[in-house]
Amino acid sequence: QVQLQESGPGLVKPSQTLSLTCTVSVDFIFTGYYAWSWLRQPPGKEMEWMGVIAYDGSTWYSPSLKSRTSISRDTSKNQFFLQLSAVTPEDTAVYYCARAPRVNFTPDGMDSWGRGILVNVSS
Questions:
Q1: Of 83, 89, 95, 116, whose Cβ has the fewest other Cβ atoms within 10 Å?
Q2: Residue 92 dihedral angles phi and psi, to the nearest 5°
Q3: 69 near 62, Cβ under 8 Å?
Q4: Distance of CA 115 to the CA centre of its chain
């Protein structure tokens, strides 16, 4: 069973860029048809889908976050990455990486999830 693990700083200052890594436990994760997403859940709020990178490197982003979000990958290390720029305290959330059998733009349909990482945005 595939395992995903988020990593990165737990504290980011306002206006800085939040950078997270998702490491996947299996090899060649971009040779199949799976899609790899980032999602987040702010305290007391619902899960929010942020963006996805497909097996061929294509990316899609939530319209509300598109101007600040970038998802990339390192195929040699079975990792994909999230960058969220110009963060504010409203970006404080538990951030998750997840896998889906195909590209989709909601939290539904993910078949594997990381445990999540809490990122606080505070000065």
A1: 89
A2: -60, 125
A3: yes
A4: 12
